[in-house]
Each structure stands twice: as structure tokens, then as C-alpha cells.
Structure to design on (265 residues):
């Protein structure tokens, strides 16, 4: 994934409308609109969207390949905890984490120096990575998200209808979103695709695949005035301290505060 430079921008409502209009002008509008609707209306992380399977959003009805094959969209999406841990949680990615920095407590560092010194004196081979601290694994949270937004439901129905028409043999465990070649999206690839839609197609500056998530949580906190607990549950954060980050004023409030600086109101 590309290196982050500040927080993803929260697009204005009219910018979201413009995005969906632009999506209709490009290939695969059904899939692309459903992807962005899930990001904006449910606040899923990009890796969660990449890992979604059909069984999370709908129940397939009828025999595979049958002429009466259809589906029923769920009222609630049940998102497994493993999805928040990244693609390796379900063995869809073989990417390896490359460490660029390690840190130790002073006591631990002293112990490592003593061990290295002893090994060096004994003429043993020393591999630096043998002394790296264990990577702390991210713990995910399972969460149930109601699929009640009308625009979101319409987008999903439109897209899954198309999937069934093209492939009546699809299974509940198949990915919800597939690439043009029919394979799985990696989080990196989907991140780049979502950023392409936001920045290049819709011209929304500084928008990223995280913009939909930030838009939803910002709206819940600032516009709907919901409690921090509600926002935390929707976001799937382990602690409220992470959700507090989204309590920063949205762009419109900052713009309004700056526009009249030095002027009499």
C-alpha cells in the first residue's frame, strides 16, 4: 500500500454524488458502485471489502447452474473478526511483512548485546532477524452491520444479479467482488482501484480508499450526534481512543472558521 500522508479526506455529499455519476460512465459500474457504497455506507476497511464473500451479504437460492437460481439479500451483514486482521487471516495473500524499524526496552537491548557478544566470541553465525521482537498481531472484532440503507441495497442487488447472470455456478464462499480476470482482489489492488475512482474519475483531491470509512464515522459523530460508543461499534475499533480521532471537525467547519478571518461579520 502507498505510504500515508495525513488523513484521508472526507468528501462532501455533492462530491459523493458526482463520484457515483462518474462511475456510471466507466466499465463495470455495478461492481464499482457497490464497492464504494459499502465503503461509504458501512465504513468497512479496504481489506474487509476485499475479503467479503457472497455469504456475508446474501443467501443463494436454488441449485447451482439452475434456471431458477436467485438470492435473498440479508438484513444484517455479519463481519468475521478475522477480516480485520488483513488478507492473511483467510490465506488469500502470501505477502510478507518487511520490517523497517525495531524497538527494544533498555533491559532487552542489554540482554541482546550480551547474547550477540557470546555468539561472536564462540565464532557462531549471527542473524540479526533472530533477535527482532515478536510482531504484535492485530486483534479484530466481529461486528454486525444492518444492511438497511436503500441506495446500498439497490447497488448490491444490481451487482449480485449481474454476477448470477454471468455465472449461475457461483458458491456462497466465492468472493463478493472479483477482478476483471475473475480472481480475488488483494487489499493493495482494491485500495489502488478505489483511489483511482475517487481521485481520477471524480477529481476528489486527497481522497483515498479510507475516505468512505472516515465519511461515515464523521457523519455519525458530527451530523447525527450519536454517542462515541455507537461510532466505535460501527467502526469495529477495539478502544474508544481510536474512534476519538474521528471527532476532528469536518472540512466544512474548518473552512467556515477560516473564511472570515480578518473581516468584520
Amino acid at each position: 500500500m502507498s505510504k500515508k500522508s495525513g488523513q484521508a479526506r472526507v468528501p462532501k455529499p455533492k462530491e459523493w454524488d458526482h463520484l457515483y455519476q462518474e462511475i456510471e460512465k466507466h466499465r463495470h459500474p455495478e461492481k464499482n458502485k457497490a464497492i464504494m457504497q459499502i465503503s461509504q455506507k458501512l465504513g468497512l476497511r479496504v481489506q474487509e471489502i476485499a475479503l467479503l464473500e457472497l455469504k456475508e451479504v446474501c443467501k443463494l437460492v436454488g441449485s447451482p447452474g439452475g434456471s431458477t437460481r436467485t438470492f435473498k439479500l440479508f438484513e444484517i451483514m455479519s463481519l468475521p473478526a478475522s477480516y480485520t486482521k488483513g488478507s492473511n487471516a483467510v490465506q488469500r495473500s502470501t505477502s510478507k511483512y518487511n520490517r523497517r524499524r525495531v524497538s527494544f526496552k533498555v533491559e532487552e537491548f542489554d540482554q541482546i548485546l550480551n547474547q550477540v557478544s557470546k555468539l561472536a566470541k564462540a565464532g557462531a553465525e549471527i542473524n540479526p532477524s533472530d533477535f527482532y521482537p515478536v510482531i504484535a498481531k492485530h486483534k479484530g472484532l466481529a461486528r454486525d452491520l444492518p444492511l438497511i440503507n436503500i441506495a446500498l441495497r439497490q447497488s448490491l442487488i444490481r451487482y449480485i444479479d449481474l454476477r448470477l447472470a454471468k455465472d449461475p455456478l457461483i458458491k456462497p464462499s466465492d468472493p463478493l467482488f472479483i477482478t476483471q480476470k475473475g480472481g480475488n482482489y488483494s487489499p493493495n489492488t482494491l485500495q489502488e482501484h478505489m483511489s483511482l475512482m475517487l481521485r481520477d474519475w471524480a477529481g476528489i483531491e486527497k481522497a483515498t480508499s479510507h475516505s468512505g470509512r472516515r465519511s461515515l464515522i464523521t457523519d455519525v459523530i458530527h451530523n447525527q450526534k450519536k454517542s462515541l460508543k455507537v461510532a466505535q461499534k460501527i467502526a469495529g475499533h477495539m478502544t474508544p481512543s481510536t474512534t476519538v480521532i474521528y471527532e476532528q471537525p469536518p472540512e466544512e467547519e474548518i473552512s467556515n472558521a477560516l473564511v472570515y478571518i480578518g473581516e468584520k461579520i
